[in-house]
């Protein structure tokens, strides 16, 4: 919706032909922009509090660039692109100012570093091999206006490493626990912390880990209270959910 459309809608409310509730419904339901290969939802932020996120896998570099261009036309900030290849990053960077993180394969366009929630999110990893998923979660949370604490390589094989950061865990409003292998980290963190824990199983591990299925089942069967689980390697989903929880107590503005 452009400014003229918005002005027309407001005038309709002023003249009494639309009630404020009807106008609000119109704003929530429209519009989107049809690019042929994608329908860009420009009112995602109005409905859900955050702009549409671009899933890069399976899209051509030109398609990603076109979606980004459409979002920039609507003055979107912190445009997040997940699972983005280096090839796509090269193409997109020719059209806009792209900040690309190769390990998690995350791109950010028109990044504005702004914290809008009073609490913090801790991202905790079992090992360095989980780093890509951790950074996807951390960068997602940061793009959505959160302060993120990174506590990496503190798996249960050396529990003293985790306990050395217990004060940082206790200060967090939400914790994202990322681990592969048997996925025990989430249960340990859930038994120590007094805040929600979002467990992220990763596909890291030997054959019997079944590409993350073992960690997923372990986390789903956790006896620690307050632990919820997202899909295997879904750092984005964890970061987004953590941001929603962190903003529930109000924003800094």
Structure description:
The protein is α/β, with parallel strands linked by helices. It has two domains: 30-109, no CATH class; 120-247, Rossmann fold, CATH 3.40.50. Helix content is 40%, strand content 18%. It is built from eleven helices and eleven strands. It has helices at 3-15, 20-29, 44-48, 61-73, 86-93, 131-143, 159-163, 166-171, 185-192, 213-220, 235-247; strands at residues 32-34, 39-41, 54-55, 79-82, 98-101, 106-109, 120-125, 147-151, 174-179, 197-201, 227-229. This is Nickel pincer cofactor biosynthesis protein LarB.
What keyword list fits this structure?
PurE_dom; Rossmann fold; P2CMN_synthase_LarB; five-stranded parallel sheet; 18% strand; alpha/beta; single chain; four-stranded mixed sheet; Nickel pincer cofactor biosynthesis protein LarB; 11 strands; 253 residues
What share of residues are in beta strands?
A: 15-25%
User: What class, by secondary structure content?
Assistant: alpha/beta
Apparent shape = globular
Largest sheet report: 5 strands, parallel
Q: What count of helical segments does DSSP give?
A: 11
Structure at a glance:
This protein has 253 residues and is an alpha/beta fold. It has helices at residues 3-15, 20-29, 44-48, 61-73, 86-93, 131-143, 159-163, 166-171, 185-192, 213-220, 235-247, and strands at 32-34, 39-41, 54-55, 79-82, 98-101, 106-109, 120-125, 147-151, 174-179, 197-201, 227-229. Helix 4 links the parallel strand 3 and strand 4 (79-82).
Map the helices and strands:
Layout: H1 3-15, H2 20-29, E1 32-34, E2 39-41, H3 44-48, E3 54-55, H4 61-73, E4 79-82, H5 86-93, E5 98-101, E6 106-109, E7 120-125, H6 131-143, E8 147-151, H7 159-163, H8 166-171, E9 174-179, H9 185-192, E10 197-201, H10 213-220, E11 227-229, H11 235-247
Parallel strand pairs: 3-4, 7-8, 7-9, 9-10, 10-11
Antiparallel strand pairs: 1-2, 4-6, 5-6
Helix pairs in contact: 4-5, 6-11
